[in-house]
Amino acid sequence: MPRTMKALMKTRPAPGASMERRPQPGLGPNDVLVAVQAASICGTDLHIYSWDPVMRKRIHPPMVFGHEFCGVVEKVGSEVEAVKPGQFVSAEMHVACGHCLQCRIGQQHICQNLRIIGIDLDGCFAQFVRIPASNVLPIDPAIPPDYAAVLDPLGNAVHTVLAGEVAGQTVAVVGCGPIGLMAIEVAEACGATAVFGIEIKPERIALARRVGADAVFNPKDTDVVAAVREATRGTGADVVLEMSGHPQAIRDAFGMLRGGGRISLLGLPAEPVKLDLVPDVIFKGATVQGIYGRRMYDTWYRMLSLLKAGRINLEPIISARLPLDQFARAFELQKRGEASKILLYPNGIPK
Ligand code: ZN
After folding, report:
1. pTM score > 0.90 for this model?
2. What is the whole-number distance in angstroms between the Cα of residue 253 and the centre of ligand 1?
3. pLDDT for res 1
4. How far is the CA of 105 from the centre of ligand 1 (A)?
5. Each residue of 172-182: pLDDT tens digit?
6. If you measure from the C-alpha of residue 110 to the centroid of ligand 1, how many angstroms do you get, rounded to a whole number?
7. Non-local CB neighbours of 106 within 8 Å, separated by 6+ positions
8. With 70 as the cut, is the pLDDT of residue 25 above it?
9. Which residues are catalytic?
10. 233 or 1: which carries more pLDDT confidence?
11. Domain annotation for the chain: domains and CATH numbers
12. Separation of 197 CA from ligand 1 center, angstroms?
């Protein structure tokens, strides 16, 4: 009889989720089974839990969701040599095909046939998760274990910040949710001369200051474009990182960019956004980048090096730690927007 495990599942196409008993995943020759130590809730998970329209076509219940985690390798498939049982690991949850044009020229993060564990395949809100061995990353013991549960969003932040020059540059981070907060820390760690946060929510404004933003401007009471220009001697920010996905925030982001600057867009707007390309992009000579996922595996090695060197403190960004059984409370906290990153422990909270 196959061994069973606890798993938080989307069992039907409706709001909510339920804790189920189901068989542990079987392994193919190149797979690894990981006992999940800590998993973290992403905005995408909240969309899945709440059954928001954006997820209804993509998610096919019954399935286990969750895609940010760390854990200990339980067992490995017959062909796996590089990963060993007992290793503490995290993993890239975007599974690239390895065969399409992008994959073959080193752009696996935008693979044409990308599948995501926790969205297209069973995820990590469970006691065990199956991962292809080539997606597994061993975690150095010098890195605090809980940080390994949030490498997916930290990787988004590192990918965005390091998609162009940042040393000796002024950086504006538009939207200070978890990834924005991480981006502030990464930009500071990588030598930005000043980092400005743009944020509306008071708790997030306080956190942005706490993680090291030189100034935080609130669009509710401030002309944020004018404020960033003023803080940069009238020129605008060298680098703007858009992490909110809010249409007006995106227009402001272009407005606060200096001529010749770089704007990197990570936030996902829910609908098409109107921009004025002539002043904001063309005459400005702006470099505009779309950012998706993490570079495999350039982003991972840079991120792990920054963590190992102690350059990034994620403690202020981890706002709650709960056993997986308390998922309903966790999603309620997440929904209220008061929490930053919430960690869930499917195998109990380690002492
Ligand atoms: Zn591919």
Report:
1. yes
2. 32
3. 59
4. 10
5. 999 999 999 99
6. 7
7. none
8. yes
9. 44, 47
10. 233
11. 4-154+295-345 (3.90.180.10), 164-290 (3.40.50.720)
12. 35
